Amino acid sequence: MLTFSVLTLFPELLRPFAEEALLGKAQARGLVRVNLHDLRQWSGNRHHKVDDTPYGGGAGMVIRVDVVARALDALRAEAPIDEVVMLTPAGQTFTQASAEAWATQGGHWVILCGRYEGFDARVERLVTREVSIGDFVMMGGEAAAACIMEAVARLVPGVLGDEASHQDDSFSSGLLDYPEYTRPPVWADEGVPDVLQGGNHGAIREWRRSQALARTLDRRPDLLPHAGLMPQDSAELLRLGASAEQLAAWNAPEPPAPKQKRRRKPPV
To answer: Which residue from 56, 88, 101, 114 has the highest number of Cβ atoms inside 10 Å of its Cβ?
Structure first.
């Protein structure tokens, strides 16, 4: 079973997230476990104080290394720990590839959620990974922990109703996802594309791939060098307005040669 143990100063921020929707159902089915721990219980003092002023001066407070060490020792005494993850702006950016790797690895993951000015630098020697969810600043790591847990948990076999439903998601294929439609068939004078209502599954697959390429080219062309493009994709990107120079920069394969029409032999 994939287990997340989250060390945080505000476990109640995460409790509804862990008990509802996808994570709640996954826990109820015994596929994922989320343990929320208040870091203050390992403060070592009657005031439950886990932070102190930084050496050298400066604004804010720093979470103490001895508090984190006691918490990790206590969790290890209950069950083996496979990974200790510290959420920090200095960490490696978490991506869909990260989520897939974590879900495949499984095991017991401890996530450290910082607050204030973060952790004492000596906490770094206690962790196995430092992770960031993006280049922006938040008040603490709880929201980031929620993002990571959901991204990983949904890839655990059995969590999603359709085992293949995540394979066409944005980033899983290397491209942004294609647009989706449902009822009503016409809304505000905009209709559902005819191809999606025609029942030709081959045509639908081609349309969806073309739409995914178009969206990625328009909105996130930085993804294309890593998208595993096929020769047919190169041809479609050229049709969508990409240049041969761009295809070369993306290491895209050569588009297939156009088929030549056979000349009919004149009757003898």
So the answer is: 114
